[in-house]
Specification:
The chain is α+β, with helices and mostly antiparallel strands. The chain has nine helices and twelve strands. A hairpin with a 3-residue loop joins strand 3 and strand 4. InterPro entries: HAMP_dom, HATPase_C_sf, HATPase_dom, His_kinase_dom, HisK_dim/P_dom, HisK_dim/P_sf, HssS/ArlS-like, Sig_transdc_His_kin-like_C.
Amino acid sequence: MQMKRSSRTALLFLIPFLVVIFLFSLFIYYSVSSYSENYLFKLLEARANKVARENIDAKSLSKNLLMDNEATEKLPHEKDFFIPINDKLDIKAEAKKVGISQRFFSDAVKNGSAEFVTKQYLYKGIRYKSKAGDFIVITAAENYFEINQAKNLINTLLFAMGIASLILLYIAFYFSKNIFKPISAITEKVKEISSENLHLRLNENNTNDELNQLTMTFNNMLDRIETSFETQNNFISNASHELRTPLTAIIGETDVVLSKPRQAEDYIESLKIILQEAEKLDNKTKALLFLAQTGFNGKVQKFDKVRIDQLLWDVKENLESMNSKNKIYLDMELLPENPMKLKVNGNTQLLHLAFSNIISNGCKYSDFNTVTVSIGASDDFVYIVINDSGIGIPEDEIQYIYDPFFRASNTKNYEGYGIGLPLTRNILRMHNGKIFVNSVQEQGTTVQITIPTWKPEAV
């Protein structure tokens, strides 16, 4: 069974704390043990010197002496050994007699002191010089910490670790549950949202914490999904209408022609109408295919340095030659002194098509009044502003202008497919450009286009 995230988080908090507590407990145990052992060795050294003065300097010893010191300051279970250092010293025999290692005697003779630890006793040996000669004085006492305190300290530390673990476990689960509580609420709310109720949103608050940012991000994503759904629905509706219109005309004309025998001239006239409608249908499907191709990066376009002012002059000449009613004014007052700032990294044919769409729309929807095209540039961008005094776009319909086949409600008297603007936006996106449309109905439309200037590293 998979563990819940809140339980895993609680354990992730708990395990490091337990490891730290365990290590801290080990540190306490060995610190106390080391301190106790060092303190007892100092007492043993002091006792060794004292019993040496009392037993060796007070009387001469002529042979190895083992005796119990009856002084009142004796340590618990204290044993004292006085071993003369002379030619008769048998370290192996003395070590066996005392019950410690031979190395202890060697260190005491060589270094002046030595220490030895067993589970029951601590041994401290010193080399003592007196008028009677040199002696190894060994004082041993009960390993008081190991026998009397170690077990109690271990039990105390284990008890403290157990209590701390229970407290930490409760705190970890309490906080993990409260931390994930808002996330659980978000999850439950998200489960309620489907394609049938995309208008629902998560509850936001005024804080700037991560959860509120997550909520805001999710709501923004829902906004985009809802817009995408609406765009898709509008596209299907508009495309169906635009594609059905010429098909209806073709079918209707064909039915009329076939309803009875006619003269050859009538057939020719009907075939011309059918051909005209079929060409419209072909143009719309080609435009739709081109729009799809520019909507993704599947088709690689060749990019090169393109000088925008020259391109716009070509667009002006082309549009005016296609229709003598088109009036286009190129405003060059804001041209930069450095012509390099007018160059962009782009595809000439695609940019020509994009600007032609915008400018020809301006001419068409302004009833062929003059359309002004202004050019400016900074170090990083080329700016093109296209302004017309046409019919404008209703305010409540501007949000749909990039939907394929969408046509504003006030364009019924003008020919068009509703493909040009979304196609232009796709082309500008391919050039990392941006397009902004501001329009006031019956006053005109202003289109601002921004394209990054050509940089050597962009090639």
